[in-house]
Amino acid sequence: MDKVLAIIKREYLTRVRSKGFILGTVLSPLLMASFILVPILVARSGGREDTRITVLDQTGEAEVYTRVAQQFVGEKAGGIELAREAAPPGEDLTARRQELNRRITRGEISGYVELPPDVLERGKFAYHAKNVSDFATNARLERAFEAALFEQRLSRAGLDAARVTALNQGLDMEVINERGERERGQTFILGYVLVLILYVTILVYGLMVMRGVIEEKQSRIVEVLLSSVRPFQLMLGKLVGIGLVGLTQYSIWAAFTLLLSALVALPALAASPLPLPRIPASLIAFFVIYFLLGYFLYATLYTLVGAIVSSDEDGQQAQMPITLLLVVQMVILTLILRNPDGTMATTLSLIPFFSPIIMFMRIAVQPPPWWQIALSLALLLATILGILWLAAKIYRVGVLMYGKRPTLPELARWLKYS
Predict the structure, then answer these.
(1) In a shared domain, residues 79 and 208
(2) Do 25 and 149 belong together in one domain?
(3) From 35, 78, 355, 383, which residue has the greatest number of CB atoms within 10 Å?
C-alpha cells in the first residue's frame, strides 16, 4: 500500500505543480468571471455616450416623430436622444444632408433619420450613421418607427390606435418547473455547462494517463519502476493520482464559482439580467460521483492503449474509438434534452460507457427515478471493475513491450499469462 501511495503522490504533485495546470486552473474561472461580470459592469458604468439622432422630417407633420419620441422617454430612452428637423416636402435635401454629415464627422450627432414625404404609404426610410455596425441601435430605431407608422396609419383610418395596440398585445408565457421555480433556460444552461466540463475533463485526464504511460515506456523509466512495484500497483497509482488532480481542479473552480455567486449577489449587481442559477447540493454530489466513475472508466481504457502502443503516433490512432464514445454522447445530447425520459435517453443512460454524461444530463435537467440512477451506478461500477481486471492483465505484459503494436490474437494470449 505504501508503494501505491508513493506513486499517487508522485503523479499528483508532478502535475499539480506544472505551469499548464496552474494556468489552466486559474485562467478558466477568470475568463468565465469576465464573461459574466464585465458586461454587467459596462452596462452599469454609465460610461457609454448617448446616441444623438436627428430626424430629418419631410412628412409636413410632426405626428410620426411625436409617436417615435414617446418611445424614447425616461428609462426607455436607453441612451438615445432624438431631435426633429423639419423639411418641407419636395425640398432639395442635398445641402441639409451635407451639413448633417459634417455634424456626424465632428461628433455632434451620431446619425440622422431621413423620413420621406410618402413614408406612410411606402413604409421606407433611411438611417445615416458613422457606426452602422451598432445593430442594437439600428434594431431599436426600426422597431420604434415601425410602431409609430402603424399607429399613424390606424389614426388616419379613423381607428383608435391605443385600443388596437392593446387588443394586439402579445402573450408572455412563463415556464415553471416542478419545484415551482420560474424557468428562463437556466436549467438547460447549467446542465449543458456542467456536462461540457465533465466531457472535457474526462477526455483531458484520460489522455493524460495514456501519454504518461507512453512517455514512461519510451524513456524506459517503467523498467526501473517495475523492479520495485507490481504492474497493477503502478497502474492504480497513476489512475488515482491523476484523478486527484482533476478533483483538485474542480475544488478550485467550485471556490471561484461560490465567490462569483457572492459578487453577483451584491446590491450593485443583483439586478443583472443574467443571474447565476442556483446549483443544488445534490447535483454537485452527482457531478463528482459521475466524474470519478467516468474518469476511472475511460482512464483505464486509455491506460490500456498506452500499454499496448509504443509511440504517440500509434497512441493517437489506437485511442480514437475510445474518444469517439465520448464525442458521440455530445452529438446526441440535443436529442436527450428534448425527451429526457424517452426510451432512447433511458437506454443510453444505463449503458456504462454513456452513463457518466447522459445520466448526469438527465439528472441535471429532469431527474429520473431513483432506481435508474442506482442501476446506472451499479452497472458503471461493475464495468469499471471488469475493465480494471482486463487492463491489469494486458498492462502487465504490454507495458514492457516495444516495437510493433500487438494484434488481437496476441492480446488474447497476453490475457492467458499468469
Answers:
(1) no
(2) no
(3) 355
On whether the CB atoms of residues 376 and 348 are closer than 8 A, the answer is no
- Whether residue 177 lies inside any domain: the answer is no
Give burial (CB, 10 Å; 0-12/13-18/19+) of 14. middle
> Whose CA is closest to 120, among 44, 63, 46?
63
The answer on 384 and 308 residing in a single domain is: yes
Domain boundary, last residue among 113, 140, 170: 170
- Picking from 107, 138, 170, the residue at the C-terminal end of a domain is 170
Cβ distance 187 to 177 under 8 Å?
yes
Is the same domain home to 305 and 403? yes
Q: Which residue has the cell 481504457?
A: 301
Q: Are the beta carbons of 112 and 118 closer than 8 angstroms?
A: no
Q: What share of the chain is helix, strand, coil (3-state, %, to 5)?
A: 70, 5, 25
- Non-local (6+) Cβ contacts of 16 within 8 A are 245, 248
Side-chain half-sphere exposure of 202, counting CA atoms within 13 A: 33
Q: Is 382 inside a domain boundary?
A: yes
| Burial (CB count within 10 angstroms: exposed 0-12, middle 13-18, buried 19+), residue 398 | buried
In a domain, 176, yes or no: no
Q: Are residues 200 and 131 in the same domain?
A: no
Question: What is the domain range of residue 317?
Answer: 2-40+184-416
Per-residue pLDDT of the chain (418 residues; tens, 9 = 90+): 777 888 888 888 888 888 878 887 877 777 777 766 666 666 555 445 678 899 988 888 888 888 888 888 776 667 788 889 888 877 788 888 899 999 998 888 989 999 888 888 888 889 998 888 788 888 888 988 888 888 888 888 888 777 777 777 766 666 666 655 555 555 667 778 888 888 888 888 888 888 887 777 777 776 677 677 777 777 788 888 888 888 888 788 777 777 766 665 555 555 444 455 566 778 888 988 998 899 989 988 888 888 787 777 777 888 888 899 999 988 888 888 888 888 888 999 999 999 999 999 888 888 889 999 999 999 999 999 888 888 877 777 776 666 666 667 777 776 666 4
User: Is residue 298 one of the residues assigned to a domain?
Assistant: yes
d(C-alpha 39, C-alpha 6), whole Å: 47
| CA separation for the pair 24, 179 (Å, rounded) | 36
- Whether 351 and 276 map to the same domain: the answer is yes
